[in-house]
Design goal:
The protein has about 425 residues and is of the alpha+beta class. The protein has a single domain, classed as Cytochrome p450 (Orthogonal Bundle), CATH 1.10.630.10. It contains 18 helices and 14 strands. Strands 1-2-10-7-3 form a five-stranded mixed β-sheet. Strand 12 and strand 13 (about 410) form a beta hairpin. The chain binds protoporphyrin IX containing FE. Protoporphyrin IX containing FE (HEM) binds near residues 91, 258, 304, 305 and 368.
Length: about 425
Amino acid sequence: MAITASPDVSDINLTDLETFVERTPHDWFKRLRDDAPCYWQDEANGRGFWSVTRYEDILTLQKQPLLFSAGVGGTSLDDLTPEQVESRMSLLDMDPPRHSRLRALVNRGFTPKAVKVYENRIRSLIREILVETMPLGEFDFVEHISVELPMQILSDIMGSPIEDRHTLVSLGDRLLGNTEPDFVGDLVKDQSDLSQYAHLPFSSPAALEMFDYALGLADLKRNNPGEDVVTILINSELEGDTLSEHEFKLFFLLLITAGNETTRHSMSHGIAALLQNRDEIARLCADPTLAGTAAEEVIRYATAVHHFRRTATEDVELHGQQIKTGDKVVLWFTSANRDERMFPDPNRFDITRTPNKHMAFGLGGPHYCLGSHLARLEIKVWLEELVPYLPGLYLNGPVDRMRSNFFNGIKRIPVRYEGASS
Ligand code: HEM
């Protein structure tokens, strides 16, 4: 019988980014869920944080957004002054009621009915991308497919010119991939002093370029209004006032990064999981109506955002641990989505998994992903259109993972397409 070594809790270091390059440490998370469900993690460059890893616990914390606040310290692990928190505060980092007012501005554009309008556009775009890419034979799935679809759809929604998409993708990479040398060169967050940028989202100078881009687009839309989100934002009223320029820039940056990178990495994990589980390809090809449950499983299995951080606003006890006012508390969605208390055989990639009430979009709190219906639709249609190609598609080298304990990113997936089977 194979014996899987279980790591010692004292060996677990969730700030060790090299481990996240190699794998998502599901072995660590299982150990924590079983033996230390509220676990104190020291940080070399920070105050340390509590890690919450069980599904039910995260749900309980999410339901108390004022006790476990996004607004007090922000949602990243950075230790910030109140001024820095305020200066980088987007929708994601706000507490109710301020959060609810801002979210109401864009909510209507992201309901299931509103995003359904994009279905035909998504389908024709994917068909075009696949027809263009597959004849290459050997290619990087990330560059040619995962990067293209979400950003092109987002360009339509935001009203940004399609030819700017690679600029926006690269800015998004530098922002969310601020610990990945391939994206930021020497400005790697855990190895450089980025304190001069701490007032900017992700402590990243790329935010300034994204802000400039947002202002340029807003000018364009003032002269040429459309039905896009940027036109809505620049004309919107908030408490009888318009959105300030700063609020607009932060909102734009959030929508571009949240709407693009998450869906891209989910697709990349999805294709890797399918190519490593060819039985699931056979099931999907035999019955393409499984694309809906398969999309949900891709999103769970990928869990593109490993965690978000909250700050305790009162002393509170969890599993016998004393969380103090001001402590950082990290919600590990990636662990919740493999919690065996919630998901039978959680490490199995099962495209018919039902029920599948995963936490990849968050759950139970006010910050539940605004774009969840859009992401689900994109991934479902993408799977439907991939079906004819899947039997002839193979992994052609190792999957290259991003260096990050925040985003579960994939940089490259070499694949080989051998043509449709007869
Ligand atoms: C598979 C793709 C996606 C994943 C895994 C994902 C994941 C998440 C997560 C985990 C949160 C935070 C939830 C919480 O703190 O409780 C979030 C929030 C958010 N997401 Fe997504 N997301 C995805 C796609 C999208 C798309 C396509 C958009 C569209 C623009 C989007 C826009 C947002 C926004 C604006 C927020 C902040 C909502 C708020 O604070 O009220 N996301 N997402």
